[in-house]
Each structure stands twice: as C-alpha cells, then as structure tokens.
Amino acid sequence: TCCRAIRTYATAPGLSTVGVVGMGAMGHGIAQMTAAAGYKVVAVDIDANMLSKGIKAVEDSLSKVAAKAVKDGKADKATAEKNAADVRSRITTSGDIGALSSCDLVIESIIEDLNIKKKFFADLGKVAGANAILASNTSSFPITQLGEASGRTSNFLGLHFFNPVQMMKLVEVIKTKDTKEDVYKLGFAFSKSIGKEPVACGDTPGFIVNRLLVPFLAQGLLMLDRGVASVQDIDVAMMYGAGMPMGPLTLADYVGLDVCMHILEGWTSQYPNEPAFVIPQPLKAKVAAGKLGRKTGEGFWKWE
Ligand code: CAA
C-alpha cells in the first residue's frame, strides 16, 4: 500500500545522496520514494514551473500518505505529519545539473526523446562525481546508447519505474554488456531499499512491461478507430473481463498520450518491420490537439 512511503528501509551501502532529474509524473514519485527511504535527494528540473509542480505533487502525495496512515490506525496525526515533513526536508531542489555533482546515484527521468536524453547524459558525464552511478528511467530507449552518451558505460544502468511510482511496486533493472556487476547489484539493492520489487531485464525495446503493455494500449486505440466499441465500453470490458485496474484508454490517458506517442514513434522508426509497433490514428489526433490525457485534463476521457 502507499503507507510504504512513510516507512524507512535500510539504505543501500555506498549510497546516501541520490539525484533525480525531471520532476514530471515519474521523477517526482521517484524523488519522493527515495527520500521516504532515508536518502538525501537532489531534485533537478531545468524548467522552474515543472520543478515547483513536481514538488507540489510530492507534498500532495505525502499528505495523502499521512492521512491514510492515520485513517488505518498506523500512526497518530502528529507522527504522520512529522514523517511527511521529514521526507520533504530530505529533498533539495535545483534548476541546474551542476547540483548533481555530489550525488552517488543520479536517476534521469526527463522527456522521452532520445536526442534530448543523449545530450543530457553527455552533460551529466561532465559534472557527475567520478564514481557516481548513472541511471535512466527511459521507457523505451536503449540503455546502451544512453550509457555511451554519458561516457560512463561501466557505471550506467536502467532503473525503470511505473506510474504512479508511489503505488506501483515494480522496478525493471537493465544492464548493458558494459555495466559492472557491482553497479548492477547496487541497482537491485537500491530498488529494494525504497520498497520496490526489482526484476532483471535485457536491454531490449520496452524491456518487459512496456513491450507487452504499449502494443496492448495501441490495439485498444486501433479497436476504437475501427468503430468496434466506444471508449467507455472498451475500458469497462477490460476492467471487468480481464481484471485490470484501468482499461487501456484510461491507462493511456493516465500514462500520457504524448508519452505513448513518443514511445511508439521511437519504435516504429527503429523497427519498421515489427507489426506490434504502430501509431493509431486516434492517438495522433489527440496529441495534435494538445489533449494529452490526465496531465492536460482531457484525452480519451475528461480528468478532474
Ligand atoms: N500518492 C499517494 N497515494 C496515492 C497516489 C499517490 N500518487 N495515487 C493513488 N494513491 C492512493 C489513493 O489516495 C487511494 O488511497 P485510499 O485507499 O486511502 O483512498 C489509493 O491509492 C487507491 O487509489 P484510488 O482509489 O484513486 O484508485 P485505485 O484503487 O484504482 O488505484 C492505481 C489507483 C494504483 C493507479 C490503479 O488504478 C492502478 O494500478 N492502475 C494501473 C496503473 C498502471 O498500470 N501503471 C503502469 C503504467 S505503465 C508505466 O508507467 C510505464 C511506462 O513507462 C509508460
């Protein structure tokens, strides 16, 4: 449950300060869970607006966690509020990647655009400490290429989280042929230390979850495009017929239609012969209209 966020776990050996870059839907959750486990967190976003929105999202989530702990009788109000304040106090913020120089581990969670990520890692490679471990939360790009861009291939790995990070227990840990074994092991230890369940995965498109999930979401949109069923009926069918917490169109909205589009664009251009990788017309139309799902208040559904 989300009460995990107010427990503290033993921190992984050798790690005390963790940088999280990009304070969007994923980054803010990674920062929160990392701080909740007792690490010092340096939260960086070059966009001041995103940085303050991300920190506000952390504070809102911490309030939910505190309220739930009180409701469930796990803590009294004062203790729950102090826990939330302690977690918040472990997060410092910056708009400058120079602030990451003191971090033992840096987790990148910026926009899903290969060239922007490569540029970021090239810059990070110049400022990160000599022994720092660098990780990407990319959903879909090769960890090998990002590691090469950083110039730190042996200290580089993938740590892929799921949205909402506060609730979803999985982390995919991805190594390349160059990732040192102790760095890879530390990726597992870190994930466990923040209350997650790590799985090992090769450096392949979409790793495990997105390679199965994103084509499924795309099939839901192709079904809508064929006029087989309505948005609501597709979602209700998959919730009640396949036991999913959210139907595919709700989940696409939740993940972000721009994120789904970025993933599928990357894959269709890199793997044009893979039939599972397609960009459905309704997805293109929503993104072109700026209706990106939950984050903009409307996608295939309206969100409060
Ligand atoms: N922080 C703290 N608490 C939170 C929270 C957050 N960010 N989000 C939800 N919660 C809490 C709620 O407050 C609520 O608490 P109470 O029980 O006290 O009311 C509890 O969690 C349950 O939430 P809801 O009642 O709102 O709804 P729910 O039971 O449907 O759970 C959900 C929400 C966990 C998101 C669930 O709908 C779900 O699992 N959805 C599927 C999510 C999924 O598949 N994610 C993966 C996306 S793919 C991805 O992320 C990879 C990628 O790279 C694209």
UniProtKB/TrEMBL annotation:
All residue ranges annotated as the 3-hydroxyacyl-CoA dehydrogenase C-terminal domain in the record: 206-303
UniProt-annotated binding residues for CoA: S61, K68, S139
Pathway stated in the Swiss-Prot or TrEMBL entry: Lipid metabolism; fatty acid beta-oxidation
A cellular component annotation (GO) from this entry: mitochondrial matrix
Enzyme class, UniProt record, top EC level: oxidoreductase
Organism field: Euglena gracilis
GO biological process, one term: fatty acid beta-oxidation
Protein name per its UniProtKB record: 3-hydroxyacyl-CoA dehydrogenase
